[in-house]
Design brief:
This protein is mostly beta strands and about 170 residues long. The protein has 1 helix and 13 strands, in the order αβββββββββββββ. Strands 2, 3, 4, 8, 10 and 13 form a 6-stranded mixed beta sheet that branches. A 5-stranded mixed beta sheet has the order 1-12-11-6-7, with no helix packed on it. It has a two-stranded antiparallel ribbon with strand order 5-9.
Length: about 170
């Protein structure tokens, strides 16, 4: 009888170990549907297997941008240089672009505010272009992250961390 009890205890404990070993892994921070991406900061050369991207500037819009915002709102302008990093001509629809603040509040750019509008078509290997994206945000919005997701989702997203020195907010009038 003692052997049966010992065997029962052994089987029960092994079942508990097996159950613990097969429990689901801890989720990855950022959510279950987060797109994989290439992470970097301003000035770094980033490559997602298709596009080489160098984030250049992030600032509040000014009079020369020709953008007006309602009270309590503002435009933020992001600029980067990009090039075809493949060995063949590149056809790419525009990025799906979003910007986030430290609270995790996210604003997606309107498609007509992502330039080149529509995308890049027939870019030769090494061919370059300028990306400019305008985000319409609350006036107190301070960005900490920009995500550029290729529209066709065939390549990884660009995740650009915004450091304090990277962002030039508009100066308050004196």
């Amino acid at each position: 009888m003692k052997r049966v009890t010992a065997l029962f205890v052994l089987v029960a404990s092994l079942g508990g170990v097996a159950a613990a070993a097969s429990s689901p892994p801890t989720p990855i921070p950022g959510g279950a549907n987060q797109a994989s991406g290439v992470a970097g900061t301003f000035g770094q050369k980033l490559f997602n297997g298709e596009i080489r991207l160098v984030p250049k500037e992030l600032r509040d819009a000014n009079d020369t941008d020709g953008m007006t915002a309602a009270d309590g709102q503002k435009w933020i302008v992001f600029t980067a240089s990009a090039s075809n990093g493949t060995a063949k001509a590149l056809d790419m629809q525009q990025f799906v672009a979003s910007i986030a603040d430290s609270d995790g509040d996210t604003v997606q750019a309107q498609p007509d505010k992502v330039k080149p509008m529509g995308g890049v078509f027939g870019a030769v290997p090494g061919g370059q272009w300028r990306e400019q994206i305008l985000f319409y945000t609350p006036a107190n919005f301070v960005p900490v992250k920009i995500v550029l997701l290729p529209y066709d989702r065939k390549h990884e997203a660009f995740r650009i961390t915004v450091r304090a020195k990277d962002y030039a907010p508009a100066q308050a009038p004196h």
